[in-house]
Design goal:
two-stranded antiparallel sheet, 6% strand, 8 helices, three-stranded antiparallel β-sheet, 5 strands, mainly alpha
């Protein structure tokens, strides 16, 4: 007898559990690094404004305005200016140097004084006529005018005082026409041997009449007024 042939064990499928998908880490986009804001450039003052302000400070003095008038068409030394204004020469020299530094006065060739001393005469450059005037200078101009007027011969003074009521266009027309005449004469060469004159012109709102107009408008606006 022969023993029965042994059969190999039947192949079995491997046990499989539920399929689990591998976890995928979410992709995170890299954040851009914050960019530093550009530094603001330091503000630089307008050179023109700085120059205008420096000129205004130089002209904000009654003494300096009078010095310019004294040296308008004939050069004068510091000593001559001081004597004419009745001021201390050292004080006047400070004002003269300020005007020279800002280009309102120009030193002329040195000349010899009565005792052989070296004297520097100064002549106005007329820059003040072209300079930009600021409101704070108004009082300085008026005070300088009053000082010069007090020294003038009353017989040589001509004055006009006029009150007007104008619209903006008429006011501009009046100013332009008067300034045109003054510019014309300012551009002329001084008359040799002529008499020196000074002209002061101002246009301003009549505050007294404006106040009265405002009061009247307020009364008219009242009910039954």
């Amino acid at each position: 007898m022969t023993s029965p042939r042994a059969h190999p064990p039947a192949a079995t499928e491997p046990e499989t559990g539920p399929q689990v998908e591998p976890e995928v880490e979410p992709q995170v986009e890299p954040q851009a690094e914050p960019q530093a804001e550009p530094e603001a450039e330091p503000e630089v003052a307008d050179p023109l404004d700085a120059e205008t302000e420096a000129d205004a400070r130089a002209l904000a003095s009654v003494v300096r305005m009078r010095i310019l008038r004294l040296c308008l068409d004939e050069p004068s030394t510091n000593k001559e200016i001081a004597e004419r204004l009745g001021k201390d020469p050292a004080t006047v020299l400070h004002h003269v140097r300020t005007l020279v530094d800002r280009g309102f006065l120009a030193a002329q060739p040195v000349r010899r004084g009565t005792r052989g001393s070296r004297e520097i005469p100064y002549l106005a450059t007329r820059k003040s006529w072209r300079a930009t005037h600021v409101p704070v200078q108004a009082r300085v101009l008026v005070d300088a005018f009053l000082e010069e007027l007090a020294e003038a011969d009353p017989e040589s003074v001509e004055m006009v005082r006029l009150g007007l009521r104008l619209g903006p266009e008429q006011r501009s027309e009046l100013e332009e026409r008067m300034l045109a005449v003054l510019r014309e004469f300012a551009d002329r060469e001084p008359e040799p041997g002529g008499t020196p004159y000074s002209v002061f012109l101002t246009i301003h709102e009549d505050a007294g009449r404006r106040g009265r107009d405002a009061a009247r408008r307020g009364t008219d606006a009242r009910p039954g007024g």
